[in-house]
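new request in #modeling-help
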Amino acid sequence: MKKNIIIVLALMVTAGCSSKSAVTPDEGTSSQPSLSSSSSLPPSPSGYGFDQWQTGPLGDVFYDYDSATLSTEAQEQLTQNGGWLASHVSKAALIEGHCDERGTSEYNLALGDRRAASAKEYLVRFGVNPSRLETVSFGEERPFVQGSNEDAWAKNRRAHFVVK
Amino acid sequence: MIQFFRGAVSCVFLLLFCFVSPLHLVAAEGQEYIAIRKEGSGNIALVLDKLDAKGRKETNFAQSLDVTMRDGLDFTRLFSLISPPLNVKDNSDRKNIVINFPALTSVGAEVYAGGVVTMKSDMIILDMKVYEAAGSKLLMNKTYSGTEADLRSIGHAFCADIVQLLTGKRSVFGSRIVFVSNKTGFKEIYECEFDGYGVKPLTNSRSICMNPALSPDGKHLAYIDFISGRPTLYIRSLTGGRIAAVGKSAVSIDPGWRNNNEVAATLSFDGNQEIYLVNTDGTLSRRVTNSKSIDISPTFSPDGSKMAFVSSRNGLPQLFIQDLASGQVKRLTFSGRYNTQPSWSPVGDKIVYTTWEKGGEINIFTINADGSGLMQLTQKSGENKSPSWSPDGEMIVFTSNCQGKEKLYVMSSKGGNERLLLQVDGEQTQPSWSLFR
């Protein structure tokens, strides 16, 4: 159910906004059934790893509270990312580790580093040459969603992929 | 030169005082300080008298010094400042000033401080005298001088002297605080004096700067800057302007100085977050920690032999202490599920840190280095973070969102007496108090 809402949200925002500085959609509009009429849009990646902040070919992965462990969904997304990287050998990726605002910023900088590293490690085991993968941590410094609630926090605990 | 001048003033004063007021016993100034207070006794009841001055310029400077000295002494929270009784001074003969000690003791004053401001060409001269009220005994007689630009430091030099005289300890005067502020829209590093005066930017990277820390001698500033695209440790010489960058190939986290030549920080270039000692030229001195988990936020005992730090080796972050010579590690904190941000007292065996509590509050605690004496310093006031000791160990600067935005506050090292340090736009975080003063 939650997953569906995220997909709908992603579609709505990709449809309505061309820039990254999109205003966070309010929750009230996300349940409007009229959104399903967006089928006329050009195809863009959707699903677990894609939202208004990730519209590129590589999907992001999300983490539990204070964890850098990869969930099943995260591993599926990374497998998909690995496939794309395998068929685009001239491309490299920067993996950014991010955390929610809770806790303290120094610890979150370390935690974000571990999140980025766990995603990289999975891709390397999948067969991607480590020289094509760079990691960095932003800790809690660059949240995707402003807000102090579990929905915002869950969106901010991620490894974000930037194709280079 | 200064010594001679001070001596001369002293002699003139003694002669004058004996002549005018033979009934008062005058004690000559001793060479060593007289600590008349016991540690732990209450505030010192002090009458800081209005400074005497003749002439318009002198009067203006005297008024300015009055404010600086009063605010300075108030900042230490060591004094109860009592208004001078109306008849505290008798200068009816227009030449000499006689202090009315019975009037002082009747208002409960323990100590009296007063002085005169004069000028010699462009130099401002402040002649201060401190008496014990009960015995009318002269405890200190000292002359301070400087230009108009030195007015604050002249006032604070007296404050430092009277605190050392009465407590036997050096105080915060002359120390500085470095911190992060986002008032330009970017997190940049700033510094201010111990009381929040004179805020000055130290970086203009228009990126993200974090965790500034001054070396004990104040010659170097270590901090984290994202200007290269990743969090990198920079060590800037504040005297020569040279900047060394460390750990460019990975992330760097939260530096803490061991001594003037070595700063410790977390570097993750080998794939894991480990603490290293780094020289001021940016070269690695040695690796300190070795665990598969997060190791961050090094802070050192005053002699540099032990390091407290945060590690997730047992799961959630807790504080540990490592002996640098033997490498032996002991867990320090067992209470609280998420303990981070340790800072080792510069004067003893206490460590201040923060606990992220179940209800969402973050509170500041102190604990002895042996694990005893756990004490909670903040409560029911939102998130209180990044505690850092004053150089005398009497106060703690920290950041709190108790009034909404994150701002810097100062409190007693035993908790309480909290007050806002500075009123600046935006949010101020990660304060670090200098050891020098």
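bot summary: Chain A has five helices and four strands.
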